[in-house]
């Protein structure tokens, strides 16, 4: 499942909006990502065409199973990498920013090793 980094960011932001508000609106995505509403319109059109989201007539966005899988994967990476960096002494804001950069480029193999490392430390 290879998609562009920007699409991963949009899907992750949508999942975060759903968890925070219980719904997903374009305006909230724009605010979360710091982008314009036309940028969100363009991105949601592409995501809809590729089967990652659906949109209701009133503009509410729903992640499809395919979109949810990517969003959940990115969000898991983000949370774990943020926690790891904070644990290493990085301030929370920098940790969140750096985790966002790392989550897209880190291989699945390396991420699984990091996740396993933290699981074994927790036990």
Task: Describe what this molecule looks like in 3D.
Helix 2 (about 25-35) crosses helix 3 (about 35-50). Helices cover about 75% and strands about 5% of the residues. The termini are far apart. The chain has about 120 residues and is mostly helical. It has six helices and two strands.
Give a brief outline of the structure:
By secondary structure, the chain is mainly alpha-helical. 73% of the residues lie in helices and 5% in strands.
Q: What is the spatial order of strands in the main beta sheet?
A: 1-2
Q: Encode the helix/strand succession as letters.
A: HHHEEHHH
Low-confidence stretches: none
Strand content: under 5%
Cα(first) to Cα(last) distance is 32 Å
Structural class of the secondary elements? mainly alpha
Mean pLDDT: 91
What's the story with the biggest beta sheet? 2 strands, antiparallel
**Roughly what percent helix?**
over 70%
- The rounded Rg comes to 15 Å
Number of separate strands: 2
Sum up the overall morphology in one term. Answer: elongated
Count of alpha/pi helices:
6
List descriptors.
123 residues; single chain; 2 strands; two-stranded antiparallel sheet; mainly alpha
Describe the protein's topology.
Elements: H1 5-21, H2 26-33, H3 37-49, E1 53-55, E2 61-63, H4 65-87, H5 92-105, H6 108-122
Antiparallel strand pairs: 1-2
Helix pairs in contact: 1-2, 1-4, 2-3, 4-5
């Amino acid at each position: 499942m290879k998609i562009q980094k920007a699409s991963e960011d949009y899907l992750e932001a949508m999942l975060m909006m759903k968890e925070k508000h219980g719904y997903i609106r374009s305006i909230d995505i724009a605010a979360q990502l710091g982008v314009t509403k036309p940028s969100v319109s363009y991105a949601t059109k592409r995501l809809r065409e590729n089967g990652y989201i659906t949109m209701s007539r009133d503009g509410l966005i729903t992640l499809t199973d395919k979109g949810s899988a990517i969003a959940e994967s990115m969000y898991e990476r983000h949370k774990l990498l943020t926690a790891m960096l904070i644990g290493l002494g990085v301030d929370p804001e920098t940790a969140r920013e750096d985790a966002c950069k790392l989550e897209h480029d880190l291989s699945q193999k390396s991420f699984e090793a990091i996740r396993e490392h933290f699981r074994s430390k927790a036990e």
